[in-house]
Design a protein that fits this description.
Layout (H helix, E strand, L loop, with lengths): L1 H17 L1 H22 L15 H13 L4 E7 L7 H15 L25 H13 L14 E7 L6 H14 L1 H4 L2 E5 L1 H35 L2 H24 L11 H9 L1 H17 L2 H28 L7 H31 L2 H7 L9 H16 L3 H19 L15 H12 L4 E8 L9 H15 L4 E5 L2 H4 L10 H13 L3 H4 L9 E8 L4 H17 L7 E5 L1 H35 L2 H25 L5 H14 L1 H16 L3 H8 L2 H16 L9 H41 L1
Helix pairs in contact: 1-12, 1-13, 2-9, 2-13, 8-9, 8-10, 8-28, 9-10, 9-13, 10-13, 11-12, 11-28, 12-13, 12-23, 12-25, 12-26, 15-29, 16-24, 16-29, 22-23, 23-24, 23-25, 24-25, 24-29, 25-29, 26-27, 26-28, 26-29, 28-29
């Protein structure tokens, strides 16, 4: 098997050495084609619905109730007037503003909800009597009371239904223009919130982040490589490998019709550092050996003979980790995983083919001039430090394993504290415009996070029975006792002010509903019960949209129905955006667990194949196991939730954290065959191989640093998490592995003497 692999790898490298111009031109043509596909066909998608397949039951139900109950995506306008909104001047201006908003072509005017939906607003100036009448009408309205004017009377809200979700940006701009026209209102503080606006802003910021952070990461990687190698032309070669990998992956993604989601927007950030890993190993070894032969092709063949197999296996493990995300039942995550895996394959192919071709085109004399001098002049401190670490690990082999055992044991309680939770609004940094607007709305009103409970009656008489109305009011009271639930509304509020006022007969309830539908309030009554009175929509407004909060509402609802079952044949289904977010998060967690287990098995099998030894395979996975324990221990102790970025990265740890262990063990075993003792072999590992591993770790870890300064929290989490993984796996590989090898070898020697 390995002979066939060696022959295959040698053939690829030989092609790069023998036909450099053909390889470079072919890569250039392919890059241009895929770059054109990237530019011309790119589309953005930040809709949380698309985290689930179009056939998912929750998504289908959400679409059904949107049609049946007329629910639409809402933009919410809040206006704050500190001296109060319940005065003739403010309400008159607000009434004119609402009328202008209703007239906007992209707004479903009939569905606009405000104080004007409850009480008739006279044209022209208002009187104090008009204000008192409006306030009284609002107080008596069970659906809009507290929702359109805050309880403290200092702000008013306008709920603006969009004809199309994609119109939110244009409607937002038009509403801001109207606020400027109605200066009396525009002079007060105002804020705009709502899921469609959050999604649109996230999509816009996502592009900005990708456009800024990917080049910054690339520039930082370039500068670090230049500092370590001091050879501009060869550093350019490694950067070309990285950039071509990114363009090929992103070009194929958009060219095949996939949209850019939050996950796929991170592909360049992931690929840029990962794609240079193999190039750094090749360049480091090339610098070491070229001065001895002064011949490009000879040096390249020697370098690739030593490094081709570990490079292939590290690429396989990394690609396997990303490709395993295809097991997650979340379409954007599947796309992300598969295309990063493709990018990793491209990086491997370019390292094996493009890099030697590039070096061959430099010319022998020019290459010798570029490599003139000490290739390691800028890293003596690094070299001495690594040798010191090696001497300590070999000289006192019990110390570091004990330290890691203690740290791992301490991390286990932290892992037990990790909780699954997420909230799309928290993808914006604290203090950002979107977070502030959402928090302000949640503070003044029942809440911007919505969910629904759809009650489907067994027959038309089920929902109009006094018993059902009483049960719904009781359910609403129970859910309203939850601290973060701002309001629970159903059709029961249209026919009864409370349990004591529920009509005694079905006919009275039907009559009450008929009169409401015939009144101006019919527009929002239709959002609570269908025209045939057979299906009801219990609307839940929450001040907190975390998954844990949504689950608390579900648990309380289940407990209520367990104690007080619905009539035979009557069903209750959950719906709404907040519930949908909970569903796809749960699916992601279960999918990530499957991906994690499968990737761990695949990586372990690959290690057995590579080292042809179970013992060495177990040793190879120790660094990644220690890295996982330590990282998740810290996550648990710091209270960081297991959210979307963490869920995805949990699987990627496996493919990335093992890279350094593969190179360390492979190089040690090769050197052990040359040296008379294992200690001499380990000492040699701490020379060029350890320098290459360390440069890789530092370059990749620091390559993620620009993400620390992103305005979107998923990018920040990814940056911190990935940098931590690289540093920890590097430390564990260079500190733990030699200590354990030393203990094994000394134990074997004692057994041999006995």
């Amino acid at each position: 098997m390995f002979k066939a692999l060696d022959s295959f790898q040698s053939a690829i490298v030989e092609l790069g050495i023998a036909r450099p111009k053909l390889i470079i031109m072919s890569a250039l043509v392919l890059t241009i084609v895929l770059l054109v596909a990237l530019v011309l066909r790119v589309e953005v998608d930040t809709d949380p619905e698309n985290m689930l397949s179009s056939s998912n039951p929750v998504r289908v139900l959400n679409h059904d109730i949107a049609e049946e109950f007329g629910t639409r995506n809402m933009l919410v306008l809040g206006i704050v007037v500190e001296n109060g909104v319940l005065n003739p001047g403010t309400l008159a201006n607000a009434g004119r503003l609402v009328a202008d908003i209703k007239a906007l072509s992209r707004v479903n005017g009939e569905g606009v909800l405000s104080f004007a939906s409850v009480s008739e607003i006279p044209e022209g100036d208002l009187t104090d009597e008009d204000v008192d009448r409006i306030a009284a009408d609002l107080a008596a309205n069970p659906v809009l009371s507290g929702r359109v004017i805050s309880e403290d009377g200092t702000s008013l809200a306008v709920y603006i239904p969009l004809r199309e979700k994609g119109d939110v940006n244009e409607v937002t701009a038009e509403v801001k223009d109207l606020l400027a026209v109605h200066t009396m209102l525009g002079g007060g503080d105002h804020y705009l919130a709502g899921l469609p606006l959050a999604e649109e802003k996230f999509g816009r910021d996502m592009f900005i982040q990708m456009a800024l952070l990917a080049p910054l990461a690339g520039m930082l990687i370039f500068l670090l490589m230049l500092y370590f190698f001091r050879k501009l032309i060869l550093v350019v070669a490694a950067m070309l490998v990285a950039m071509l990998s990114v363009v090929w992956a992103m070009g194929l993604l958009t060219g095949t019709g996939f949209t850019l989601h939050i996950m796929s927007s991170m592909i360049p950030i992931f690929l840029m550092p990962i794609a240079v890993l193999d190039s750094i190993h090749i360049l480091s070894e090339f610098f070491e050996k070229y001065p001895q032969s002064r011949d490009r092709s000879t040096t390249l063949r020697t370098v690739y003979k030593e490094l081709a197999t570990p490079i292939t296996f590290t690429s396989l493990t990394t690609a396997a980790a990303f490709a395993s995300l295809a097991l997650a039942p979340i379409p954007p995550v599947q796309v992300f995983g598969l295309f990063v895996a493709f990018g990793v394959f491209c990086a491997w192919l370019l390292t094996m083919l493009f890099l030697p071709a590039f070096i061959m085109l430099l010319g022998e004399e020019g290459l010798q001039r570029s490599l003139k001098g000490d290739a390691e002049s800028g890293s003596r401190v690094l070299t001495n430090g690594l040798k010191g670490l090696g001497r300590f690990a070999v000289g006192k082999p019990w110390v570091l394993p004990v330290v890691f055992i203690v740290l791992a044991a301490a991390a286990i309680p932290g892992m037990m504290k990790v909780e699954v939770n997420d909230n799309p609004v928290r993808w914006f940094k604290s203090g950002s415009e979107m977070r502030v607007a959402t928090e302000e709305f949640n503070r003044r009103y029942p809440g911007v996070y919505n969910a629904s409970l759809i009650i489907d009656g067994a027959d038309p008489e089920t929902l109009t029975s006094p018993e059902m109305v009483s049960e719904l009011l009781a359910l609403q009271d129970r859910l309203s006792e939850i601290s973060f639930v701002g309001q629970v509304t159903s059709y029961a509020n249209l026919v009864a002010a409370g349990p004591e006022s529920v009509p005694k007969t079905d006919d009275e309830i039907v009559s009450s509903l008929d009169s409401v539908f015939d009144s101006p309030q019919g527009i929002y009554a239709g959002g609570l019960i269908s025209e045939g009175y057979q299906r009801a929509n219990v609307q839940i407004s929450m001040k907190n949209g975390d998954n844990k909060s949504m689950q608390r509402v579900l648990d309380e609802t289940d407990a209520f129905f367990a104690a007080r079952p619905l009539p035979a044949g009557t069903t209750a289904e959950r719906a709404g955006e907040t519930y949908l977010n909970l569903v796809w998060q749960d699916k992601m967690v279960s999918g990530m667990l499957k991906a994690f287990i499968s990737t761990f098995v695949i990586v372990f099998v690959l290690m057995i194949v590579l080292f042809r030894s179970v013992r060495w395979a177990v040793l190879a996975i120790l660094p990644l196991s220690a890295t996982i324990l330590l990282v998740y221990g810290v996550i648990g102790f710091t209270g960081k939730d297991y959210d979307m970025p963490i869920a995805v990265l949990s699987t990627l740890v496996l493919g990335i954290a093992i890279d350094f262990a593969i190179h360390f063990i492979q190089r040690y075993r090769a050197l052990a065959e040359e040296e008379a003792s294992f200690s001499l072999a380990l000492a040699r590992v701490y020379e060029e191989p350890a320098r290459a591993i360390t440069k890789n770790a530092l370059i990749v870890a620091l390559g993620f640093v620009p993400m620390f300064f992103a305005s979107l929290t998923p990018y920040i989490v990814v940056g911190i998490f990935m940098a931590s993984i690289m540093v920890l796996s590097w430390v564990v590989s260079l500190a733990l592995l030699p200590s354990i090898i030393t203990l094994f070898q000394r134990g074997a020697a004692r057994r041999a003497e006995a």
